[in-house]
Write a structure and sequence with these properties.
This is Phosphodiester glycosidase family protein. By secondary structure, this protein is an alpha+beta fold. It is 37% helix and 25% strand.
Length: 356
């Protein structure tokens, strides 16, 4: 084979695959799909529309947020103003509500003829001490506004039935700001000193209820912090008044602003004496009067009739005589205010104590 033939065969063999592929394509009629450019255009427009809508929504949200913030700021301003207005109204209400008490205190001070010598004001009580110089006696007036159940309580001497201690000792032991002697007592042969007749502590009878006899009267405070007292023949009658604590002595001086008859024995034996009396005003504030006397022979101190007149002059509604003579005791801030007729304080079985 010459070289030319060899070249031709080589060319034919090299071109054969391409010729076969061409023939196959011609016979098979294959088609090639080109991308749909229109759908791409539509998709692009759709994305742009969504972006535009999102931007519009963002603008609306921004506008709503600004409006909400403005509304909140306005509401806060109104709230702050309302709070200030309510506080101002509350202060005005307190001022108005306290005005009657201030007027009352002013009137009592005028009637007592002086400004208080001592004063204690706390969440529990408002207490004022006045010195009185009457024509026939010298006295001390303790006006007490009891604001809580913690302000006033009665205690037993050394916290035991049959024991006794001075009002000063009881006040110191309890940390009381002031103290007053309470009910009467009876001594037994062994020297023990017992509270007289019906006595109550913390709503319980110390040794049972005893019907009132002779001219005795129960004097105490109830669970509503109000003064109660009088003669009781049945326990249920006293229980109706919800007594919290109290003691017994004699006699009743005033009831509902009217003088009560003073038993003959107490008019003359002794006629004058150191006295301790308790009363209340129409607004339930308490008044304690303690008078000085040199002894118990009847030549010094006050008569019960004089004290009735003084109590009525001061506007007291109900009043009761507590134990007197050498038992009369008034303690304020650790000091003995009155002048005990025994020359020293007498140990007693019951005391009224006041707390800040």
């Amino acid at each position: 084979m010459n070289p030319i033939q060899l070249i031709n065969r080589t060319f034919i063999l090299a071109a054969a695959p391409f010729i076969g592929i061409f023939c196959f394509l011609m016979v098979s009629h294959l088609s090639v799909e080109l991308p749909d450019l229109q759908s791409y255009v539509k998709t692009e427009f759709s994305i742009q529309n969504e972006l535009l809508k999102s931007e519009q929504k963002l603008e609306l949200a921004k506008t709503a947020a600004v409006q909400t913030r403005t509304t909140i700021e306005r509401f806060y301003q109104l709230y702050a103003q309302s709070t200030a207005d309510v506080a101002a109204m509350a202060q005005s209400a307190d001022t108005v509500s306290n005005r009657p008490a201030a007027i009352f205190d002013s009137r009592i001070s005028t009637k007592l003829g002086a400004q208080p010598a001592k004063q204690t004001i706390s969440a529990n009580l408002d207490m004022k001490l006045f010195y009185l110089n009457e024509p026939n006696y010298k006295a001390y007036a303790l006006k007490v506004d009891v604001k809580s159940d913690k302000a006033l309580k009665m205690v037993l001497g050394k916290d035991k039935v049959g024991s006794s201690e001075t009002t000063l000792e009881a006040a110191r032991r309890y940390g009381a700001v002031a103290g007053i002697n309470a009910g009467g007592f009876a001594d037994d042969r062994s020297g023990k000193r017992y509270p007289l007749s019906t006595t109550m502590l913390n709503g319980k009878y110390v040794y049972g209820f005893e019907p009132t006899f002779e001219d005795l009267a129960f004097i105490g405070m109830n669970t509503d912090r109000k003064l109660i007292g009088g003669r009781f023949s049945r326990q249920e009658d006293l229980d109706k008044l919800k007594p919290s604590f109290g003691a017994t002595f004699v006699p009743v001086l005033l009831q509902n602003g009217k003088k009560q008859a003073i038993p003959a024995q107490w008019q003359n034996s002794p006629a004058r004496a150191p006295r301790t009396v308790i009363g209340n005003f129409k607004n339930d504030q308490l008044l304690f009067l303690v008078t000085d006397g040199y002894d118990e022979r009847g030549g010094s101190g006050a008569t019960l009739a004089e004290l009735q007149d003084k109590l009525l002059q001061l506007g007291v509604k109900d009043a009761y005589n507590l134990d007197g003579g050498g038992s009369s005791s008034l303690i304020y801030e650790g000091q003995v205010i009155n002048r005990p007729s025994d020359g020293k304080l007498r140990p007693l079985p019951t005391h009224f104590l006041f707390f800040k």
